[in-house]
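OP here, attaching both records as promised.
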Amino acid sequence: MKTYKAYAKVNIFLKITGKCKQYHEIISRFMKLENLYDTLSFVPKEQVDAKANAFTILGDFSCTTEQNTIYKAYFALKNATQSQKLEQLMQTYAIQVEKNIPAFAGLGGGSSDAATYLKMCNEVLHLNLSLNELAMIGLEVGADVPFFIYGYNSANVSGIGEVVEEFQEELLEIETYTPKIEISTPKVYGIYREDFYNPIDGFQTQKLKEIPSKDALKLMSPAEANDLFEPALRAYKELKNHYKAGYHFSGSGSSFFRIKPEKEQKYG
């Protein structure tokens, strides 16, 4: 069976623009990491130790099947399409995932897996859903899922994650490192809302939408680029021990990233 890649992302910048009920509205530049991805494939259940009728995910996960974003994506897709073919598919096939993207890391691994699963089902079962339709289904699973549905190299993401606008620029060669700290995104956002809430205005938002990622990283400190950096440091004091000069912070963490030094980059 065909293998599909679920790419990681970094947030070049992430700024809060306001509140919508319990959610925060953002403007963020998401950039795909071409060298970091999980792989997903369908495996016939008779080839693996899997129950015939149970939804089965094979892979190294730190959560239960019910908590897994792929499982949530399956139910969101089933509710949206009422597809019997989808149920039959998951009764006869397991979904195998080779995890390379660290969890709880701000790199979008769970969201990317969910988006890739939705696209796999759409392709294999000929559901003929548009990317916009898949993105709306994916939004029920997580705010970052639509970006991965569209598959852009770089995009401005706004609202609560549902507005994804491609940003035309060269894909940067980015390196990441992820401390072994499991970060709770709701906890970080809670601290931001209580002690750091300072949304940017429409003028600042528009300027950010137009700045190339390379310039943003050059001109902004980690705290200026990411409104969640200081709340994350407050919530997880050990993060300070892992920060290195020249690195930025992705999402609510715990991953740090930078553009790979030119002497280490591959050309041609």
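Record two, same layout:
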Amino acid sequence: MSFSLTNKRKIFNDPVYGFISISNELIFDIIEHPYFQRLRRIKQLGLTHLVYPGALHTRFHHSLGAMYLMQRAIAELRSKGHEITPDEALGAEMAILLHDIGHGPYSHALEHAIVDGVSHEELSRIYIRRFNTIFDGALSTALEIFEKKYLKQFLGKMVSSQLDVDRLDYLKRDSFFTGVAEGVINFERLLNMLNVLGDELVVEAKGIYSVEKFITARRLMYWQVYLHKTVLAAEYMMMRLLKRAKYLSLNGEKLFASPALSFFLTKKVTLEDFQEDEVINIFSELDDYDVFGAMKVWKTHPDKVLSFLSKGLVDRRLFRIELQNDPFGDEYVQEIRKKVISRYGLSEEEADYFIINDRTSNYAYQPNTDQIEILFKDGSVKNIGEATEDLNISLLSKPVTKHFLCYPKEIH
């Protein structure tokens, strides 16, 4: 194998869990690789720090934290007599360590603006395959677990499901760094109550209230943090900004940008293109700093749209946002549109960047994808919706949809 065999045991001091040990040399070599180190330069919560100033933690933090929780979960299941081989444990740890490696700068803004509908999950799969090649097939089990193709399905469920270590970490970590106490969950209790029945990941009945708190906390974190209206305004401004930068670049305008950012602005890149070494290597050079550095220069660009949106994001002059349960009336939207065109001297096409009329949904729990199963002392299993008396799962399972309208604050 091409990875180092001389690494000593390493320890990371994590502000959420304390010391995280990296005792496996292959995992340490993956963490040390430039592909993974890039995650240090991508904030976990994108533009959320514009609302919660402490939300400056990175994808790197989250990936290590999720791996730590996977280690804890595996130790718990082994203590209850379930066989998880060293290769399986290593595979599960690597799968969760790399589950977010495909994220680009400002995450979902990039997915919707400068690459053509390529999700971070698809890119993470490509990265795991590349690491598997780099390390002579040592990530084959990790790849099967990540793709939920491994024989022991419960290992894949711990990576991605309604109750996985990914969600446990980001709720705990994001509530810690934002200071939003409603997101605090009892991850210790949830991990201690994990079990396996057949090939299903289950939670022992003693942990049912912790599961209820987990689902409720997730719902509250979505409205207070992830879909906070000011965060929404900032993220959609970023999407429009990158969309405008790409439009100008594809039409011959030479914009200031790092080589990596320039590559994606001047080309229509699809998922198929990421199979090429050149494209994935250039993407691996792209992070938050590329975009923010470009925005600082674009503030003075002669294009009205590019400069206005750049100033707004760099100097935190964010759009006003109105939120409501029903769609906005066409007459009201047109009235705002006329005022925007008149105030800023825009064309109809340019005005599309200044007025954002969209909607967002919050799924606290999605039983149609998979269920959180509760194991009772008599050996029976019920999904959380049937097992709980206090939590209205049917209500939480329905998406709460809000319609929103964004436009410059100068418009009244």
